[in-house]
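A common beginner's mistake is to predict each chain separately and then try to dock the pieces by hand. The better habit, illustrated here, is to supply every component at once so that their relative placement is modeled jointly.
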Amino acid sequence: MIQAQGLCKAFAAIQAVDGFTLQVERGEIVALLGPNGAGKTTAMRMLAGFLRPDAGQAAIAGFDSMRQGLDARRRLGYLPEHAPIYREDTVLDYLRFVARARGLPRAEAVQALEAVFAGLSLNAIAYQPVATLSKGSARRVALAAAVMHRPPVLLLDEPTDGLDPIQKQQVRAMILELSKQSAVLMSTHQIDEVLSLCPRTVIMAGGRIRLDRTTDELLQQSRYHNAVSFVAQESIAARAALEGLSGVSGFEQNAVDGRLYVFVQGSKPQNQLIAERLAHRQVPYQDMRLEYGRLDEVFAKTVAEARA
Ligand SMILES: Nc1ncnc2c1ncn2[C@@H]1O[C@H](COP(=O)(O)OP(=O)(O)OP(=O)(O)O)[C@@H](O)[C@H]1O
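With all components supplied together, the output reads:
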């Protein structure tokens, strides 16, 4: 559904995107993660056909984004980073206009409007002029405009940027629903969003894709994967009890909440063993967890390696 082959784009001396190759199928939600300036927006603009690549090709649902731009855009819902909707219309009139511009037949347009108004809670702002909307409301209206025609491909550039926690949940639920029949590529800076929504993650840095894996595989690369953590009043006694225990390779204590992390060698979970040892040595502890891994750590490591 989304295909990119060797996309490149330079702005003067800056190589913003350098050989971007990616394929996303219907039913997938792929997170595009990267530090500021990694090239995410530039790559998305080329995919959407809004920016001509210096080299490479992009296609949306089989249509070349540049040479068959109209056909490609009909099948695309694109939410740009800064969606420009400076209009005097009310939200309702603006979205009616978008439905007409998309060529939706009347009955379908009514259904589509009902769906986005309900899904994104737009009723309270239906009669507010678009130009006076708050940042979060403007973002939701822009998203409504991008997805209203239920396209098979969605390119969403930071879709929940500027939204409050309730709105974020709503937007994420809508993206999940839309992904059942669409291919979704979304950039984000929010790790919790990736973990809750995106089974696959692409990490970009310096214009290039550095990692493209399932999010689970990335979590397994984290040094926290299979670490055992707990809270102990007497953390020194806890460390002493576990020091030298077979497989234990190190400790780390969180400076903020005091949680102790015990790192273990190998891929076998050792929480049972650790719990038994603490009980045997009569060291009280609470809230023991087997850690799954940290995406922020894998992200930081990948970016640091790209910059080295
Ligand atoms: N129109 C432009 N003219 C000149 N330089 C540009 C232009 N657009 C992007 N760049 C540069 O290209 C690089 C990649 O920018 P891009 O916006 O694609 O990154 P990004 O990963 O989306 O960043 P962010 O997370 O901050 O949105 C940056 O160095 C940026 O300054």
